[in-house]
Amino acid sequence: MNNEKITSILNKKLNLDKIYVTGDYNHIKIIAIGDVFKNINHVKRQQIIYAPLINTITEKKIHAISITTYTKEEWKKTKK
């Protein structure tokens, strides 16, 4: 599964402001930004990202994922 397809799946299912997907089949890195993560703990944030991708993970089209999530405000503070 390529990065554009992963981005497309996440954009269709989640209300994200920005999403960056890099890597290859062996290791995908996802950075997701959106207020959907507001007041949600780290584990729940990852579950939000995993949910739309679960079929591709169980079908072994994706081997490993690294997920980093930010609200819009957290992203602004991180990118100063």
TrEMBL record:
<dbReference type="InterPro" id="IPR050961">
    <property type="entry name" value="BolA/IbaG_stress_morph_reg"/>
</dbReference>
<dbReference type="InterPro" id="IPR036065">
    <property type="entry name" value="BolA-like_sf"/>
</dbReference>
<protein>
    <submittedName>
        <fullName>BolA/IbaG family iron-sulfur metabolism protein</fullName>
    </submittedName>
</protein>
<dbReference type="InterPro" id="IPR002634">
    <property type="entry name" value="BolA"/>
</dbReference>
<dbReference type="Pfam" id="PF01722">
    <property type="entry name" value="BolA"/>
</dbReference>
<comment type="similarity">
    <text>Belongs to the BolA/IbaG family.</text>
</comment>
